[in-house]
Design brief:
The structure holds six protein chains of six kinds. By secondary structure, chain B is mostly helical. Chain B has a domain of 71 residues: Orthogonal Bundle (Cytochrome Bc1 Complex, Chain D, domain 2). Chain B is built from eight helices and two strands, in the order H-H-E-E-H-H-H-H-H-H. Chain E has a domain of 196 residues: Lipocalin (Beta Barrel), CATH 2.40.128. Strand 3 of chain A pairs parallel with strand 1 of chain D.
Chain lengths: 637, 177, 337, 200, 505, 135
Amino acid sequence: MSVAPEEPEVLDRRLDAAALDRRLDAVWQTPRGLWAALATVDHKIIGRRYIATAFVFLALGGLLAVAMRLQLARPEARVMSADRYNQVFTMHGANMMFLFAVPVMEAMAVYLVPLMVGTRNIAFPRLNAFSYWMYVAGGIVLWGAFVFDMGPDIGWFAYVPLSGPQYAPGKRADIWAQMITFTEVSALAVAVELVVTIFKQRAPGMSLDRIPLFVWSMLVTSFLIIIAMPAIMVASTSLILDRLIGTHFFNPAEGGDVLLWQHLFWFFGHPEVYIIFLPAVGMVSTLVVTFSRRPVFGYLGLVLAVISTGILAFGLWVHHMFVTGLPRLGESFFTGSSMAIAIPSGVQIFCWLATLWSGRPVLKVPLLFVYAFLFTFVMGGMTGVMVASVPFDTQVHDTYFVVAHFHYVLVGGAVFPLMGAVYYWFPKITGRLMSERVGRWVAGLVFVGFNLTFFPMHLLGLAGMPRRVYTYPAEMQWGSVNLFISLSALVLASGFLLFFWDAFRSLRHGIPAGDNPWDAPTLEWATSSPPPSYNFARLPVVSSAYPLWDERDALSVATGLRPDRREVLVSSVADARPEARESSPRNSIWPLWTAIATSIMLVWSIFTPWAVVWGSIPIATALIGWFWPKGVPEDDA
Amino acid sequence: MTRRLLILAGLLALAACKREQREVRLDPPALDALDQVALMPNGIGGAPPDVLPALGRPYETNAYQLSQGKRLYGWFNCTGCHANGGGNVGPALMEGWWRYGPDVQSIFASIRDGRPHGMPAFKDKLTTEQIWQLAGYVQTIGTYAAKTAAPTRNDEMQSRPSESRGPAGADIAPPSR
Amino acid sequence: MTARPLRLPALAAVLACGGCGTPWQSALHPGGAQAGGLLDLITIFTAVCGIVWLLVMIVTLLTLRRRRAGIEAPLPRDEGTERRPRRAVQAAVATTVVIIAGLTLLSFFVTRGLTADDPQALVVRVRAYQWWWEFTYQDPRPDQAFTVANEIHVPVGRPVRFLLEAPDVIHSFWVPSLAGKQDLIPGRSNEITLVADQPGVYRGQCAQFCGLQHAHMAFLVIAEPPDRFAAWQVAQRQPAPEPATDEASVGRRIFLARQCAACHTIQGTTASGTLGPDLTHVASRRYIAAGLLPTTRGSLAAWTADPQTLKPGNNMPMVPLGSDELSAVSAYLTSLR
Amino acid sequence: MNERIVLDVSHLTLHGKSSASVTWWGTFAFMLLEGTGFALLIAVYLYLESLASEWPLGAPPPDLGPGSVLTAVLIASLVPNYLIARWAEQENLHKVRIGIVIMTVLGIVPVVLRFYEFPALHISWDSNAYGSILWALLGLHLTHLVTDLGDTVVLAILMFTRHGANKRRLGDIQDNALYWNFVVATWLPIYVCIYWVPRL
Amino acid sequence: MVVLTPFPHALFALDLSRPGAPVKWRFVPEADGGAEGLACCDTINAGPVIADGKVYFNSLDGHTIALDVATGTMVWNVRTASLDRGETLTGAPLIADGKIFIGNSGDDFGARGWIAALDAQSGHELWRRFSTGPDDNVGIGPGFQPFYAHDHGQNLGAASWPPSGWQHGGGSVSGTILFDPVLHLLFHGTGHPAPWNPDQHDGDNKWTSGLFARDPEDGMAKWFDQIDPHDLFALGSAEPGLAIDRDWHGAARHLLIHPDPDGYVYVLDRANGQVLSAAPFTTVNATRGVDLATGELRRDSNRASRFGTMTRDVCPGWPGATAAHSAPSADGRLLFIPVSRLCMDMEARNVSYIEGTAFVGANVRAKSPADGLRGALVAWDIEAAKPVWTVPEPFPLAGGVLALGGVVFYGTLDGWFKAVDAESGRTLWQFHAASGIIGDPIAYRGPDGRPYVAVLAGLGGSFGMVAKSSIDKRDATAANGLANALQDLPEPSDPSGTLYAFGLP
Amino acid sequence: MAARAGISLLVGIAAAAVVGLACVAWSAAERRVGIGQEAKALTGGDAERAPDLLTRYGCAGCHTIPGVPGADGKVGPALSGLRERVYVGGVLRNTAGNLVAWIVDPHRVSPRSAMPATGITEAEARDIAAYLYQH
């Protein structure tokens, strides 16, 4: 018995442009209505939601930061209790790391990568929808718990034994651990989609040396996620097992080990920094190219730097544990490796500077953020070199010096490029430009506010102020600097407020952008802004890393795909030679049901281990519904 | 109907949040009132102080209070006589059967005033609130239904299935080693 | 130290940060050899990194010299113009490698210098509890060992070896003016040796998040000339003085009869609890409650009456004492010098 | 923007096989991340062993019986697993149907055997860290057995419906076979860890 | 025959001359129930003694009582131990020289050990000497001549402790007190230092876990030999052992044969306290032998209990390698030792001394040794310092041994009363009693002139507690961890005590 | 399209905020009710009757009392947060019985207190104590 014969095909080359657009839109569109909105698998809609949700969490996390600064503005202040403060700083860290920084970078990629590689949808679009719902559910669980005084209060790093069964009563630490599960499931799913999209769905001709740098950085990031995040899954699962059913992974009396937690956590936690930072490297590279009006200097060097950063990222987790009394020799090794990562970072900085140096920089808002990034991130890198030194670290570890350092790296190194990227890609996503004038104010307020807020923290740390204290005695005389920091934080917050306002305003009132307002060279600008539901009427074919600069008159495209079903092109990994026409799944509500079933199981499992058994039945049912063939043209092969 | 369901869900959520509150300072009048346990003449049973239900019976349902009770159990030498619930000089507490009554006020009275056959009075060694915390925890050791707020293992030698693994019936096998 | 002049930039930083803090708990105000060495290291790192940063920033600003107001057509690719930047980038990367290698070696040697073992060292066992410190001065004769809380005295010039143990959660032992920090980890034993060069009062604080009152977990290190230290040691070995006044004797009776004695030890009385700090000479310490309140009769009374308002969540319960009982207990505690 | 047609892809096959298909790569990526998880758990096992004064901790080494039988069954299952992948490649639906039924049975047997393995460990998960890591290793692998079994069962049912005769479904069979190889491959180091490391 | 029941002691006098041995009289003292909560190892009592027409016994709640043996009327009743401080009386009084010697129990409650002498006629206390504290408390004066150098010094009973640690340092005198009419000395052992957590009793902890020789007249110490300085595992050395005068490598000596809970048989010269030989009679892994030159016990640092860590598989574990009375063979060549081969895991925890509450500070989990045999009867060649034969037993032996002619009698926890051949260890006869046996078998000649062996069956004591209904064996630390090691100890078919008397052929 | 997404996002945030505020308000209200029950359990009095008594007996003239109109006297200490205090009148432990005793006759406790015995009966004092423990 053989496979059913293929139906006669309708191919796009027989259709004129208007008819093709009509046919494609009929197949790819997300209809109006709530149900359709919940069932959509369009990477642009999901990516937009993802980005918006991540920014909502940024705003919420920012509010927590402001609350902390209010509490710390004066010594022995009573703005909030110690218990509340501990929840707030834990929420701030966990929220920013797991609900903002990682998701927002992946969200940008979910939106941009398929466009940049010239395909019609991300690989595994339903998994993409599922991952978004899981992410939202994780956020709701964490914030819902916080509203009900059940927010985790153990720090975002949740060190045992403080987070263990004996010292963290109640469900607060379990909430943290399950929030990790939610966000990691979602992050891992997106990472898999991105890897496969980048490997297999690139436009014909987009060989490895023509991949846009942002896509390169997302590829490395996705691999980092795939290899690093299982560590935190293992860690948080063993924590919840310790707490729920009394295993002994972290109980030294019964053969467990307290430091095991730290090893597992930082084996994830350090690459995590690069998971957040590498996408920003891609964004900066993109912005630098567009706004210095020249191809990037040292493409190969940058790619190698990104890859080596990714590899080195796994070799320095111990530098978070320099004061735990590990063997001296090991510490020295990790000093060396931690400092060594400065070298690829240096390569990146130097390449960008060389690009800008030999280009014709245009100081639009996105590039302003790149300069803000260079200023702060290089400083963060310098303090990074400092804390990589064991003896230096023994003085500043767990002080405000480190708080300053990683905010310089994460805000300066990732949020500034991200804001630049938002200004840059906002017209792509919405069809309208954000305000250049307001943007300059935003950049100024955020840059000045940030440095005024965080620079003094270096000094506070050296002056002996530890982290994670809900207050400090008046006689320590840290009060005036803290007051200054708190006031500066308001400047920073106002910058973000302005940013949000600008974004909202520009959605409706921004200047219409046209397809390619920045005259950028990469494929996402080859289609309309905002792009149609099918991204490209005919899939582009590229012959350079800067297709829109090198072929200014007309875009090379491929033809021969079916317009009556969702079809994408699969190409080979190295040289992007077309290999197959692959169908892409239709919209489906099942990812949502699966996410709901999974969420119920995960939350239930905080209360009883049996939830894992009974809760998996609805999940299995939903998964079968997800994968069961529905007899649509996409089932054809 | 939906509204009623919503209200119910809200109440449940609030009950959950009460389970998580960390009340570290009991108001002094409540502290005093908690000492007013009306025991039956034989020192067993009776009524808890009125303020206990008004406070929401935190010592039996609140995770923080239960875990404080567990710390006190170790700190005030309960283990010396009752082991980790299995008993030694003193009787076992795990089997959920108490000579002087299983209700929390009887346990409170046992700890506060002591009992014949060797249970010393802890009146002047623990404060009233601490005795309530301890009583709530001790009751948890032997309850027949697992409490979701109950603590699990300690960071020390494994001695028995955790408190949250109720019921304390015979179906839980002893830890084998 | 070998590199005194290096302290000048650090001093400048301190001046620039006038209100940053007090010299008794600051990495910038060393009171001992280790902290001094670390400050030198901090200074070198800051100087080197600062210069590098400055150079990068100059280049960054210089890239703006050819900036344009509007978006122009992209520049044509020209391999010829790439040569100079390529050389510059190569040179910069090479310089980075050299600097990084230098700093790594430097930090390695400083680490080695910090860990000299001294058999003459005074040995103090540290146990960090949620949220206070217990220090036991070890002695070959067990009855000469003594235990204090939240305040230690050390002789100037003599190394002190601290054996670090954590009975509950992870804490971190940090006296920035004397040395870097070291964690106290349940199930593991760490140690740190430090030496004070100058007499003075140095403040230490727990540096690892340890729960509700992590912020209020400080201790004092008082460096004294050896003779004064010896005198202090002799005094600490004595049992608590007998109460001198009637009120204090009443206070002692209440202390011993009520909940206090179940948690605290007062040598020379029957109070031998080990759950809270040893109070034998509590009034001789500068602070109570791990750096929260200066030791005065008022503070002692306030702390006894209502510890949960002052340090919410700490393990000392509110003991219901009558007003006259409170007064007596505070009189007794004040007499424990 | 103007378009210039430079390529016609209409001749390309619908749904590529193995490395030309996205699901193959997706499966591969999931294998990579789950393999990392297994590797980490094994690292945890070895780490705990390196800390312990004795190993196994407080228990005799696990009985070899059930674990070894399970290992044998898993290794034996590789043969029909290889064949079913080949039959799917050849689009031989009849043989695939036979193969998938065999694979279903060979999926159920290890799951059943696993429940004899737990008691053979002679230690409970809450006895000590050694027990915990043992149960975690077996539990994680059991999860993989069960999920792949579930996948196999669903595919088996599919094969007997009208959806079976479809290249895409046969591709799923191949991916499922690939994943089964992974489940077997991850088991072998775990088997060595649990049953032979304590006997070294 | 007089039988004493456990707390709250009732005393029965049985008339053996009549068939069925009916009760002649009974006596029930007024008791303080609080004592039950203070007895470390069940509400046991080592029994009454009869002398000069009176029955003397100690009650758990701290009274020493004398009764008229004929009528059961009380002659005097003196409160000798303070329950408030955790002291109880479980040992038997010793009568010698017209004095009653008693010692306390209560190590696990931090009670200071003491031995006291009472006037046999009036119950008036003549002297009382403590096991810890300054020299005048302990009874150390110029006549104190310990054999080993490390026992010389001023006030070592306080100086070898952390400050004030001796005030609640244990060292009880709960075992047998031995009177030696030859040298006119008293010998007694001292219990373990309190608490169990060794971290809280830094130092050598004089004079706990050792053997005292005292002058019965004034209680002043003659010598002391510390068997287990800084006793890490709360083993103690409560039982002094046996005084035997025999040849020792050719010369006649006054020996004290002391099988210690730490697993060694010590042979001491009881005139001066010199250790002549010390050899292990069971599996020992926490120590590596005894240095005969200094008398010191060599410890294995890998199995040193330390604060906050778990020490696994310490052998012998609590409650010691032997806890019951051994018996010598008739010729004094062999010693029959009832052995417990239990090991343990121990975790030291911080503990506060709170008067009247348990002062333990350890989680303990006793367990079987690797071979699963938890007990043994060992026939020990005293001079060769090695076992001659061993009878393995599934359960630890908690009761004493009776050697009568060529036969050795002993009872087991699961209720077997056995007679074995003294030369070979071959089982000659066994009987299954209704309950486990923890008492010493005794032999007597009945009114009918026939010899009898009697033994009281009734499970109790540290081991027997495990079978009590108030112990939940799911908790491995219950009954100080014995619940874990004795999971399979059968519940006695008859929980009350039964006296069995067997006629001998 | 994008604007629509933005608006729905705004609506979503607003809805979340409303739900969150409602939750907080609900739990605050619940807490108030709880405190009322606690006060009743502690004192056995009825707080509803207290404001009238507080004015009638002149308490309001000397004390600032939360929730009682016109009670802003400066003669004695303010009576807010009374249930959190450790001592009443600086002499007695703050227990319900002591507070009632103090209200009925301060001089029995502290002869030199400036507070007069106002003639409040014990039952009325219970109502007042309930009120004070509620605010």
